[in-house]
Amino acid sequence: MSFTSPFAASTAKAGYGTIELAVLPPDTPVLRNVSYQYPLKLVAPDPLPPPERKPNSNAPRLVHTVFLLTYGGGIVAGDAINLSVSLEDRTRLVLLTQGSTKIFKTPDPILISRQHMEVKLAAGAALVYLPDPVQPFAQTAFSQSQIYHVDGEQSSLCACDWVTSGRSARGENWDIHEYKSRNEVWTSDQAGKKRLLLRDNLILDKHGRTGMQLSERMDGYSVFGTLILRGPVFASLAQYFMDEFEALPRIGGRDWGDSAQLELSPKEQRRVQRQAREKTDGLDWSAANVRGFVLVKFASREVEGSRNFLRDMITDEGSVAASFGERALLCLK
Amino acid sequence: MTTPDSQQSLEDEIADLERRLQDARSRLNAEDVPVAPSTLTSEAALHALLLLADSALPLGSFAFSSGLESYLAHHKPSPPFASQLPSFNVFLRLSLSTLASTALPYVLAGYRSPADIETLDNDFDASTPCTVARRASIAQGRALLTVWERSYQTQYSPTATDNASRDDSFPQESGAAEALTSFSTALRKSDLINAHLAPLWGLVTRVLDVPLRAAAYLFLFSHARTVVSAAVRASVMGPYQAQAVLASTELQDRIRGLVEEGWEREVEDAGQSVPVMDLWVGRHEKLYSRIFNS
């Protein structure tokens, strides 16, 4: 007589993970499903109410947080991580890491470690993904992709993707075999036809016929990053980045002393301080408003420079901390 | 008497000589059959290539430096009077590498699948995350489309070319011309269409019957020419030096190598290989004084 297990068969595969954030009627967001398999680990602390929530607003009562971890604190050659995330209408999720994602040395350049994340955002859902940077050590081959599927104009996304030159304390300076990171945002029309809204694809490998080492190609920068902002929840943050970019001092311009104001407003004071710090940190950035996104590109001499920049900008503007809580900025502390 | 080191170098030398011998033999054999990949199939194709290579082609390319101006502003020479030529040479290499990794796949795809032109245009637009680069690409793409409509269309539309002298190696030739015509009609109706240069370059060269390798080579060469010409106007080098850069075998080998390397690359795998280029191009808007549009 065969025994039938009362539980559903496990379909989990190594490195696979799922996060499903749903709404329990009438209005309580719950993590319907959090599952993961070695080497991936997901940790979901208790959800917190947003610090500021206007009555009768569309904002959900609770904001969920999930930490993406890997056993051993990094990705070993040949590892493949495959995470699928889905957010229903009127849910908010913060995705975080605990420390930089370390990529360990590969015995063979053709053995590529991979990380793939597929996120479905319903209209009215919002995701904050502000992880620590990826830190590929020397002689590594890594390829990651973050694919977001949004539903119309109302899905909100704030996602950062940044990478460092390796263990600079050990003298590593982009001594990698290969690093690829792809961010895509897709939408579908009524007929179900997919349309690409944004593709940000970074390819660092030996190709390109530059005859230059990867480190030379990077022009002295140790960190490169992209911040993608979209949707109503991040509209004011996006506008803040555009305004601050507009307010940057002109390159090659001279200060004749006639533009200095005696009384600075608190906002202007913070701006002056931040710009001074950008200069000492060797941080350069640009922002562009294209196709309904604000895309921020930044680079700095050291990791801390980029971290300072992101933290200062997002904290000064304030809306992310107000609607997602301080926890959302944990990786920028 | 030989140390392991010199033994190794002798072995390397022998391997190198053998390889060169083999190479020379294969070239000797190949000379019987003239199938060099970039050979132009007909004088008509050569004619079309000369049209597109002409610096008088009204694309307005001279208005763009593709980030050179911003790059020079970010790399001031340390004594202010020092030559900027060494840093220009670095920029030209990086700029060609970027163009080959981001735009060349779209040139190839525009040529190979004319029917997909609208999707290619949308995807290229989605992959150009920078206002300045986007503006430059769209301005030149639209100009190329205008040149096609006003100057080439009557010569190259399916009815005009219905003669026996044409090489019939592309059976869907008329399909390409139709795709181009319907694309330019759609451009007027839809605000989702941008008309970027790279996919249109592929499609127009296809309609003009330029061999694909030549079309891809010319795309990269035109970019090098534009950047070098911008360098002349930015007082980095003189016009004779500029011609020397363009004529150099170094540039030839680089362009040929980039076409070779990107030949099989799908548009999905197009991407930025020099991330700092996005910053230079994006920060062009922040320059105090500008003589170029990008």
Question: What is the number of beta strands of chain A?
Answer: 18
Structural class of chain A: alpha/beta
The average pLDDT value of chain B, as a whole number, equals: 87
Low-confidence region ranges of chain B? 32-38, 160-172
Give the oligomer, counting copies of the same chain as homo and different chains as hetero.
heterodimer
Provide structural commentary.
The complex is a heterodimer of chains A (333) and B (294). Chain A has 333 residues and is α/β, with parallel strands linked by helices. Helices cover 16% and strands 38% of the residues of chain A. Chain A has a domain at 16-230. Chain A has helices at residues 214-217, 235-246, 266-281, 303-317, 319-324; strands at 16-24, 28-36, 40-43, 64-70, 74-75, 80-87, 92-97, 101-103, 113-121, 126-129, 134-136, 141-150, 156-164, 178-188, 194-204, 223-230, 284-290, 293-300. The N and C termini of chain A lie far apart (59 Å). The model of chain A has no long low-confidence stretch (mean pLDDT 92). Chain B has 294 residues and is mainly alpha-helical. Chain B has one domain (64-286). Chain B has helices at residues 4-30, 43-53, 68-74, 85-102, 104-112, 117-126, 131-156, 173-189, 197-207, 212-233, 239-247, 249-262, 275-282. The model of chain B is unreliable at 32-38 and 160-172 (pLDDT under 50). At the A-B interface, strand 15, strand 17 and strand 18 of A face helix 3, helix 4, helix 6, helix 12 and helix 13 of B. Chain A: Belongs to the UreD family. Chain A: Pfam families: UreD (PF01774). Chain A: Keywords: Chaperone. Chain A: It comes from Didymosphaeria variabile.
